[in-house]
Amino acid sequence: MRPPAISDVRSTLTPFVDFARDKGVDHVLFLSVAGAGKSRWVPHRDVEEHLRARGDAYTNLRPGFFAQNLATAYRRDIVEDDRIYVPAGQRQPVNWIDARDIAAVAALVLADPEPHRGQSYTLAGPGAVPWSEVTDALSRALGRPIRYEPASVLGYMRHLSRRGLPRGAILVQTLLHVLLRFGQGATEDATLARLLGRPGRSVREYVAEHAALWAKAGG
Hints:
The protein is α/β, with parallel strands linked by helices and about 220 residues long. The protein contains 9 helices and 7 strands.
């Protein structure tokens, strides 16, 4: 897993991969990101290319947009302001993937690496949904109205700054959500369902199972 603070992978993560392989690690499973095969600007791409150059003893997992973002990056806004506030626009849907399904694929690969050697798997949830479906699920699970409020880029950056996030995290989160406006989070792919033999968990299922995360204090 690439630590999010590390963008210079060529002096950090790739030497670690070399060390592991030289010490006898037989197979490397890398948690990459959706689009890494096409986007040269993401540092995950450099790691993938390094693994490929070393041979076929690797598998890359390229997941999309995590359902768990609702419990981390969005949690405070949901709890305190009853809203999701991001610069993702109004119209583009998002295909949320539950990290537990990513873990299930990882376990499957690690248990029997041979069929997956040299493969790169794009992993997506069961289908892209509009933001209104996410807020409807939250409203239903919490028993109070939750709204989606599209932010401007500058408004969002000011908002994160007031929340106390460091500048680097503000830039990364802003870019991540702006890219959603252009369909970056709407990836459709059946690989996860094929590998696991079942559909991935939906964002509605995730919200229903974790409603306590967004409860008001004392509520």
